[in-house]
């Protein structure tokens, strides 16, 4: 399947509201998914019956329509990008031709045509995706099935995060239903008052966990929570950017968070910001960005202050406990998690952090 990560966006159409039940599957994907934050974004109205019918036909339960919609958005932006991926995946739901040959079906259950006439047909593609997800473990193991669809932990997190935005009262939930809404598998990560600071980054790709979490992409960086900007510059960091924020609300109030490297700041020291307020523009430079916990001194990460960085060579050559903590929080907010380096994480976290 395609490796392209698309950030959820407000699209034309109606909001698909479905109930999502969190399932901690026994796959090799990470255990965290995003916490419920209410319906944001939507799907084209004409596709809603296809997701619902396909999920019903293959027994995907109340989660099914939302997961199908999320995969469709990530893979082809609801059919707006039907180009062949670098891995050779094609069509509305980005099947590799060999997988399509095994699982491609029409809405009536017949074998779907090979070639563009099949995988570029939205009904055939969506029903085929439902067939494939069911065959690979859904709905009993959503994480395992989604991981099979695309072997990347960030992909599982992103699909489940998008799926949760189509939650609560709608397809698959009858009037008066008391089914629970999507609940985070990362129940130990407090997220109240915080949002995904990378939600507006285009072509977002997670990279290594080091002292924080590294990402590539471009777009607007926003504040993870309400707070005050204490620093925007440190010459020791790539591009000289080290935006530091002291959080003022939520369970991590009083703690510091940084956004560093390939960012052009649009804030100033001393400025008070709210959750989601733009802090700067991430540009496509050679370093990407690093974000995570800091200590309020204008350039020192929490990992460094705790002695968790690699003592030889690049201080980010191994994964710190502070970086892993930041990755857990980011993932619980809907961002893809960072990539743990071999042997990590190094060190332990003080109380009060996720």
Q: In one word, what is the shape? A: elongated
CATH fold label of the largest domain? Lysozyme
Structural class: alpha+beta
> If you compute it from the alpha carbons, what radius of gyration comes out, rounded to the nearest whole angstrom?
21 Å
Could you give the distance between the termini?
A: 32 Å
CATH architecture of the largest domain: Orthogonal Bundle
Instruction: Round the mean pLDDT to the nearest integer and report it.
Output: 79
**What's the helical proportion of residues?**
10-25%
Per DSSP, what share of the residues sits in E-state strands of 2 or more residues?
15-25%
Low-pLDDT regions: 1-41, 167-189
Order of helices and strands: HHHHHHHEEEEEEEEEHH
Tally of strands = 9
Separate helix tally: 9
CATH structural class of the largest domain: Mainly Alpha
Number of domains: 2
Biggest beta sheet attributes? 9 strands, antiparallel
Question: How would you describe this structure to a colleague?
Answer:
With 354 residues, the protein is of the alpha+beta class. It has 2 domains: 187 residues, Lysozyme; 133 residues, Glucose Permease (Domain IIA). Helices cover 24% and strands 16% of the residues. Strands 1, 2, 3, 4, 5, 6, 7, 8 and 9 form a 9-stranded antiparallel sheet that branches. Strand 3 and strand 4 form a beta hairpin. It is elongated, with a radius of gyration of 21 Å. It starts with 47 loop residues before the first helix and ends in a 22-residue tail after the last helix.
């Amino acid at each position: 399947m395609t490796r392209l990560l698309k950030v959820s966006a407000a699209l034309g159409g109606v909001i698909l509201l479905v109930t999502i039940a969190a399932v901690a599957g026994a796959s090799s994907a990470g255990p965290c998914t995003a916490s419920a934050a209410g319906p944001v974004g939507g799907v084209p109205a004409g596709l809603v019956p296809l997701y619902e019918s396909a999920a019903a036909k293959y027994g995907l339960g109340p989660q099914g329509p939302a997961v199908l919609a999320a995969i469709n958005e990530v893979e082809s932006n609801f059919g707006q990008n039907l180009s062949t991926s670098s891995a050779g995946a094609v069509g509305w739901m980005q099947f590799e031709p060999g997988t399509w040959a095994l699982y491609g079906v029409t809405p009536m259950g017949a074998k779907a045509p090979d070639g563009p006439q099949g995988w570029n047909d939205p009904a055939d593609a969506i029903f085929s995706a439902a067939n494939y997800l069911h065959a690979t473990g859904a709905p009993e193991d959503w994480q395992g099935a989604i991981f099979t669809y695309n072997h990347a932990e960030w992909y599982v997190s992103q699909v489940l995060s998008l799926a949760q935005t189509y939650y609560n009262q709608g397809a698959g939930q009858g009037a008066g239903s008391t089914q629970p809404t999507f609940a985070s598998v990362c129940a130990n990560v407090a997220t109240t008052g915080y949002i995904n600071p990378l939600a507006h980054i285009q072509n977002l790709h997670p990279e290594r966990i080091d002292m924080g979490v590294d990402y590539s992409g471009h777009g607007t960086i926003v504040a993870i929570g309400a707070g005050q900007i204490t620093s925007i510059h440190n010459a020791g960091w790539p591009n000289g950017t080290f935006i530091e924020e002291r959080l003022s609300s939520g369970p991590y109030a009083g703690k510091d968070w940084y956004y560093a490297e390939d960012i052009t700041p649009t804030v100033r020291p001393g400025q008070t910001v709210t959750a989601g307020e733009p802090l700067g523009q991430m540009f496509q430079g050679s370093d990407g960005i690093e974000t995570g916990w800091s200590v309020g001194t204008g350039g020192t990460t929490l990992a460094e202050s705790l002695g968790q960085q690699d003592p030889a060579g690049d201080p980010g050559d191994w994964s710190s406990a502070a970086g892993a903590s930041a990755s857990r929080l980011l993932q619980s907010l809907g961002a893809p998690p960072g990539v743990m380096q071999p042997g990590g994480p190094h060190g332990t976290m003080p109380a009060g952090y996720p």
